[in-house]
Amino acid sequence: MLIKTLFCGPDYNKSLRLRLWLGAAFLLVGLVGFACWFLVVPGSSLDDHARGFYLGAATGVTLGAVILLARTGWLLTHPTARKKAQIEDTDERELHITRTAAQFAGLFTFFVTAALLFWAVAAPLPAFKVLFSLMLCYGLSFSFARMYLSRKL
């Protein structure tokens, strides 16, 4: 749903072609994950959860990319399905719900991360660094997006 919202412009065919490129990029990320699983994991001293992450994340990203590519390819070749999907993707109510949900999720993540920082100060330093970096990433991406959108809109 988020991909539909982010990559849906006035020219729906152009949006679908952009989604194809996005699907190809996700597929590449998934294949890199599989390459790491085959090349890095065997013979390494990684914990079981790290080994499982390589396989699980690579599988999930690859399957998601294949589904995105298949659906987008289907929409590009079937005009009736494309028209129906265009109506659904550009529905103002659905767009508003998705944008509001994304705002809530971002704020919720930010405040949960801020609360977890109090725990992370007493935890090992890498945990603190990860949480602090996440908050910093959120803050910077919000600031840059706001600057960009204020000039664009």
Overview of this structure, please?
The protein has 153 residues and is mainly α. The chain folds into two domains: 1-90, no CATH class; 92-153. 86% of the residues lie in helices and 0% in strands. The chain has six helices and no strands. Helix 2 runs antiparallel to helix 3 and helix 3 crosses helix 4. The longest helix is centred in the middle third of the chain and has 30 residues, at 48-77. The protein is flat. The mean pLDDT is 87.
Domain count: the total is: 2
Helix content: over 70%
General shape: flat
- Secondary-structure-based class equals mainly alpha
- Largest sheet, strands/sense/barrel: none
Number of helices: 6
Low-confidence stretches: none
Radius of gyration from the CA trace?
A: 20 Å
What are the secondary-structure elements, in order, as H or E? HHHHHH
Mean pLDDT across all amino acids: 87
Instruction: For the record, give the distance between the C-alpha atoms at the N and C termini, rounded to a whole number.
Output: 23 Å
Strand content: under 5%
Strand count: 0
Name some characteristics of this structure.
single chain, 153 residues, mainly alpha, 2 domains, 86% helix
Short précis:
The chain has 153 residues and is mostly helical.
Write the layout of secondary structure elements.
Blueprint: H1 2-6, H2 12-39, H3 48-77, H4 79-89, H5 92-120, H6 125-152
Helix pairs in contact: 2-3, 3-4, 5-6
